[in-house]
Amino acid sequence: MVAAEQAGRVPLVGDWLARFILGGNTIGGATLSRFFAIHVFVLPGIMFGFIGLHLWLVLRHGISEPPTAGKPVNPETYRKEYDELLKKSGRPFWPDLAWRDVIVCTGLILTIALLAHFIGPPALDKPPDPSVLVADPRPDWYLLWYFALLALIPVRIEGYVMILMPVLLGMLLLIIPVLNHKGERAASRRPWAIAVVCLSVIMIGSLWIEGQQSPWSPNFQALPLSEKVVGATSGPVFQGAQLFHDKACLNCHLIQGHGGRRGPDLTHIADKLTHDNMVIRIVNGGNNMPAFGSSLKPQELDALVAFLESRKRPLRPQDQSSTARN
User: Fold this and answer.
1) CB of 266 closer than 8 Å to CB of 293
2) What does the alpha-carbon distance between residue 21 and residue 4 come to, in Å, rounded to a whole number?
């Protein structure tokens, strides 16, 4: 669905691309067959094509020598220097170095085959259960950073990010060797290249952590608040704390570090909203918050507001002294 949604945003041909990916207008058996064919035939075919292009370029232009600090590359003289170096210490790719690639690739395939035989694939999850209403879908770990990026970008620009960003990054990777082909090659002499790599790692790592935590999604595993957090074992405040959990408010709101992060932190909400403001917000909802006016009885609404009114910052000693004097 994510792939079809992204493809559907492409101007002019978006609808056609989405139907091509899904194998129709909706997800079905044709979708699985289509994705199987893409991953088994189309993508490997594209990879083989690029590998063949890479090998052709290696045979035509040679392999870059290991970078040496203080030895910049001059495109005008590099070819002559490369030919002289090749005559002195060069080795032909075929058959000398090609055999090394064959041995490494064969060892890799054997390793994968042995792991598949002795360890096997990861266990399958439970079959889909339509009766389970709680869902928290997320991709595998290597795509969590992109999952977080799509969740955090503003809605008005997400189409541009989904479509233009991969295209621009791909063009940039292809253009860099053409435009930046002279000067120092050693990493110690290329601070901007090292900075770009470090910033990319930091960005992807930060997004990965954010995707793992997923603060924009409700916390469906939120446990009821403890008596220590509630501050009462009976009465309206205690009843309101129970309702705060039973009505799934705790799934989206934090109370002293407990709950979800989808909505605002309500730990000290009584310092920000009045009694009437709380009633209006609970009854009518707001933004992504549903309206609870039709699902709460008057006494339940009073108990819920009583609990929220107890969420205040503790008074400091000087504040307590001032209150006592007044």
Assistant:
1) no
2) 6
| The pLDDT of residue 40 | 94
Class (C level, CATH) for 227-317:
mainly alpha
- Single-letter amino acid code for the residue at 63: I
pLDDT in tens, 101-157: 899 999 999 999 999 999 988 787 778 777 776 666 778 888 899 889 988 888 788
What's the first-to-final CA gap in the chain, in angstroms? 63
- What distance in Å separates the CA atoms of residue 126 and residue 15, rounded to the nearest whole number? 33
Could you tell me the sign of the dihedral formed by the alpha carbons of 226, 228, 234, 236, in that order?
Answer: negative
Q: Which of 232, 248, 200, 210 is nearest to 307 (CA)?
A: 232
CA distance 149 to 208: 9
Cα(306)–Cα(238) distance, integer angstroms: 9
For residue 73, which phi and psi values (nearest 5 degrees)?
-100, 130
The domain limits of the chain are 1-67, 87-122, 140-214, 227-317
d(CA 244, CA 224): 9
